[in-house]
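pinning this so it doesn't scroll away 📌
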Amino acid sequence: MAARCVADLLAGIKYQAGDDVSALRVSSVSADSRLLQPGGLFVAVVGAGSDGHDYLDRAVAAGAVAVVVNRDSKVDDPGVVQIRVADTRVALGKIAAAFYGNPARGMTIVGITGTNGKTTCSYLLEEVVVEAGGRPGVIGTVNYRFPGVHREASHTTPDPVRLQSLLAEMAEAGVSHVIMEVSSHALEQGRVEGICFDVALFTNLSRDHLDFHGDMESYFATKNMLFSRHLKRDGQAVIVCENEKSWGARLLATLQAEGRVHVMGCGHGQMIHGRAEQVSLAGITMEVSLGGEVAAFTSPLVGGFNIRNILGVLGVARGLELPMAAMQRAMAKCCGAPGRMEPVLLPGGEHAKVIVDYAHTPDALQNVLETIKPLTEGRVLLVFGCGGDRDRGKRPMMGAIAMQYADVAIATSDNPRTEDPIQILTEIEAGMKECGGKRVEVDFLKGQGKKYLVIESRQQAIACAINLAHRNDVVLISGKGHEDYQLTRSGKVHFDDRLEAKQELEKVWGKAVGAA
């Protein structure tokens, strides 16, 4: 990367510098002293667990020629220029964007935010753009991808320097539309500073990340930043409204009252609304009205929550003025995101149905179970858990939901991180017991009353569920979806729900399937 003039990087940012920066050039930008290259600009960002100002000496030792700070700081090398700004988080995003030539300005940028549905919507919209003849790039939970490139995602929304570098690659590769999942952490931490979105989609809001945000009002306010701070003036806001009392309805009313951007509602009584004609485990058939234009759609996705995802994506496509035919073709062929209501199948499929889903919040788990339950001829067997070092308040809530909807519930480990898995399971159990559930061993599952199992080993829990399942049953393995690892006190270990389920299906049902 060619050296950049610091004055150009600071354009539009109010700053104070003890030295003239008009002739100063830097070869890189970083907020991590360990990644800084000689001749680079170091931005001291204050984070949740660390303060970049504590690492100024390391940055200087690594070769920084200038540092950006938000308070007077001591730097031992007098030759290093100090640049003071009001907020280094905001400055980092804008500096990184300028360093990489503001790549977002040459592409159409779509942001998707919400507790659930972001990843599914990104896959659906990607397919619509392809069918419309565009070249999409996607930045999201599963991976970062554009034509010829697939990379594992480190975060749903990467840090500003990596994000701008990625956008620059996409621009160089001829990407026309960037579809970005925008997490609440990214909004709060300023990762999308320096980007103005053309269209922004709100999918929903339900309990999650309260360990970070504190309460739902703060969580909602952070999500709203995508629309109030980062959406272009006269940009298109697409809001999914689950009902008139939902967070989406509140956001829709707020944006309409402000009048700064164009607003499109999706859901019952809104500009984009649909009528489901058939919903089964094989998919959805529905009729959709897009601002008065009515069209038929089919989708292999399952469930009412995916109807809302589809409506939201169609709203975005409408806002982008993409052809109706492209929307219809895309919906008919896109199977959604990996690990989202993903079936695990053996050849022939003559075995108990197994579905892997990423549902790891109370709302998501309830949505999936409410979808599966009426479509299942037999029983619903649920394997689920809750992550460690995260919002503890949702654990008993998810336990209660499991007892309410599943015929057989098995609580197990799900990324315990630094916590004791047994303690997490105990907190989940509190909700199960409150709903009248009784903990039993496998041999005592039969009989009256609500009963559940607790099996700490996720591998054993999956094996148990599949061994208990009959041909007309559905086994739902929720919480991890596309993830192929477990995060434990011992570190990151390989574990894939889909692989474990397939191996167990082969053990239990392989011969029967082969005979069929």
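📌 and the second one:
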Amino acid sequence: MANISVFLCKCFGEIDNTINFDFLREELSKDPSVVLISIVDSLCLETDIEKTVSQIRESNSDKVLIAACSTLSRGNLVIESLIKEGVERHKIGLVDIREGCAWIHGDNPEDASKKAKDLINMGIAALQHKDMSDDMSVTVHPNALIIGAGPAGLAAAMSLARTGFKVNLLERSKVPGGMLKLISRCYPDNDDASNKLGPYLREVENNPLITFYPQSKITSVEGDTGNFTVHFSFQEKDSFIQAGVIIVATGAKIFFPTGLYGYGEIKNVINQMEFERQSLNGSLETKKPVFIQCVGARNRERPYCSTICCPISLKNASRIAEDIPGASVFILHRGIMTPGNTLEKYYRDTLSSGVQFIRFEEEQPPRIIGSDYVEAVEVYDAITGITRKIETDLVVLSTPLVPNNDNVQLAEMLDIEVDRYGFFSEIYPMHPLETKTDGIFICGSARWPVSSDHSILQGKAAAMKAVSYLRQSKIAASTLSRVPGLKSGHARVVPESCTGCGNCVAACPFDACHIEKLEGRYISIVNMMKCKACGSCVSVCPNGTMQIPEHNYRMVGEMIKMAF
């Protein structure tokens, strides 16, 4: 049995005002494995940490149990401080007797003290049977690969290059800029799109840390966090890049509503992107445009709202109303979506400019009148209950952004997820730019339809997340945690007893387990760089061959016995 030192933290009265530390000392003294019981005012203080380390060394303790606050508070900081002083991580245990005990049982000190005793005894039992996982580390390639040179990818590239890291920027088209280079003005400031793109395009052209690969396509991806090898075709040649991180900024594409409202058959029925193109080249001529919202969206096939369609219509409609005297502009909608103060003001300003809004229901969509050219649009006004006939010389259909065709293929190569519509998806709502693979990030409309401003912000945010990996010379698997601090270990397979059933492969949400053939039989292999010690594999292993050493069956069993 290990010799254990127990340190009880008062937390300046936050704990010992409720819990009786004399009672705890008396109970712990009955345990022959406890060689030291020390009560300290606060383990957050540097002086108390030094004193604690000195006592550990003097007592010749094998392991240390800290009874203090939780890991979600300052518990991890205490552990990290002890590690810096030379105490090995697997020899430290932490028991929460503040948030999970003293704070929630402040009106019942007697039972709170008994609960604290049980928690500490369980912590001692855990330490006695706690094992240590193997660890590994990879050397980080200090450069980034960004897939897509739209607003998000350009913003990420500029941010990383200005931080001092090399950037490889891959783009499927001939020039950078994405859809932003195809439009005239941006909402909500109505600024010229070229003004917004200009600084990023100049950065790509002039910054020696950015290498741009136009008309390129990824063919395969290998490796793990900090050490990715990406093969791609460029100028009809096969090439490869080694990168520490990957940022996916591939954007989305416009949905073309062929067959809806006469699109593709009637000459003056166009979509928003065609409206933008005509605005750019000066060929737009209209005094009576009608904008129809939610064309191909918010229906059975695409039940989602594309978020940018309403602001785009507000921008283009108000532009016509303000620039063309006597213009009659209508927006036919199923509910204008303008979240936030800025877009709400944008909507009210559009109202003030003279643009008229008519709400229709999905079951009674507008009807196009005309054959070669639209002459009018008939719509049932859901507010007044009146059917209105609107003369028009141009119908503009607002369609959603939809995923790129190669998203699923790219997701398989990167070992990340796509959602049910085909956009790249995150698995942790609290970390919306991260994927299940550490070091791979998603931003912009590749993740979900967003405006150019939001794409740029997400690109910058993804770059800053990437910096946290690139600034390290090596990355240890034990640091790749989804919770604060180090992760609790790695799953470990006992090869002799593994039957190769594959349950762990099916259960692992991070694809850290796979089956390999070894000496004529199939067994499970764990990729420590991907494993997050979530325990899913342990729960489905039929014979206990899959374990997390820091939280193994024996340890859990002894904790339960101690508690009851």
